[in-house]
Automatic annotation (TrEMBL):
This is PadR family transcriptional regulator. It comes from Dawidia soli. Residues 15-86 form the Transcription regulator PadR N-terminal domain. Gene3D superfamilies: Winged helix-like DNA-binding domain superfamily/Winged helix DNA-binding domain.
Amino acid sequence: MYSKELLKGTLSAILLKLLSENERMYGYEISQKVKELTEGKIILKDGSLYPALQKMTADGLLSFKEEMVGGRVRKYYFLTRKGQKEKAAYFDELKDFILTLNNIVFPQLKPL
């Protein structure tokens, strides 16, 4: 499992990617999908996941729809138009940052 410091800067990218591929997801579903895709290396805890979802919603990148499921309200999050547009720019910036960081930390590794 990775440190929360490493995850903090990548959580928005993870959420943007998952929601762009799955149209809509609820919090527990997101955390389970991340756990599955990373073979348990990334565990999203409620204390980091839900504040990130709330911030991205406040920033206009996400919205949600509440539905009753099994007698409980479930929030399904999805990308807004703004989120769709900003996703590409965010991923371009993240990719460039990773390559730059790689040049500093692991200069022996050459990009493919």
